[in-house]
Model the fold of this input.
Amino acid sequence: MSDAEAKRLAHSEYWDDRYAEVGSDRRVHEWFRSFNDLEPVFDRHLFQVRGPETAPKILHLGSGDSRQTIPQDFWRKGYKDQLCVDFSSVVVETMSKRESETEGINWKQADVREMDLIPSESVDIAFDKGTLDAMIHGSPWDPPDDVLDNTGRYIREVFRVLKSDAFFIYITYRQPHFIKPLLGCGGVDWDIQVDILGGVDGSFDYYGFVLKKLSPPFAASTERETQKLDSG
Done:
């Protein structure tokens, strides 16, 4: 894929055309891995620490039309409070109809870079499998300005909607040393853990990032400054 083509992935018009082209009775593709491939990650970082009995609010970021939908697999595990967002109106309409009888999985149209419909600190778990990657093009050593802008806006929005003890699971093929600077953009504060996940059938390794939300950096900074003033 050329850089010009990769750049189009960050625009809803591209995906509207793709989804409209295949029609509502077919799917575009499975982006990265299926639930079965990722289940060890989910078991370690979700099922064992935030079981369905805790009724967590799960946000799927850029859900698309995955063949083996992660939301459906979570639902079968007992997670019945899930919100799927995508900026393609075509796929949201298609998936809303396809999953209309599944209570506990809702679909909304939203750009993950501006999720005004989701209140701050209202989500327990956020999940991304390819959405951040679709915003990245150009040199990984020196990302273009639009990549820094798009990814920064996205990551800050994810940080905003997560509760104080929440976490963000992100699956990618991209190398951690290129991704970590994007995840650590200004305005966020994460504890980042990376699982190296083996490739399947000779494919390259991929990675599971688990980002736990820490105290808002600006609030912490303000508190430190206040303490300095009080002590002075």
